[in-house]
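As noted in the main text, all predictions were made from sequence alone. Below is one such record, for Cell division protein FtsL.
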Amino acid sequence: MATNTFKQAAKPKQPAASPRKKGNSFFKLIENYVKLGIIFENGLPVRYIPYILFTAALGIFYIGNIHYAEKTVRKLDKLKVEVDDLRAEYITIRASYEYDGKQSEVARKVAPMGLYESAVPPYKIMLKKEQE
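Prediction:
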């Protein structure tokens, strides 16, 4: 029986780095135009910290406001669907009640109980006042 041996793993060939263009990129043009290197040459100036914090706070408030508005719009859409369903249900039930409340339907439903519509129209009962 043969003995176990390890295979020598072949080293993967790394592709040669492609030469980049030597032209100016968009960000390089912005860096050359704004000259931020001069401002931050000796570190971040302390006088800019309140402005940076204020801008960051405004950004956080803006993002929170957008999330709140989107959540409100989603909730509003759900409520519109629910209102439409409830309105359809209300109209169906109202139509059913109107149909069941018709005189002919009421007469038909109470006929098994022995109640029938009167053929004689109603009349007033007048009492004479007696003399005292």
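The chain is about 55% helix and 0% strand. Residues 27-112 form one domain. These features were considered when defining construct boundaries for the mutagenesis experiments described in Section 2.9.
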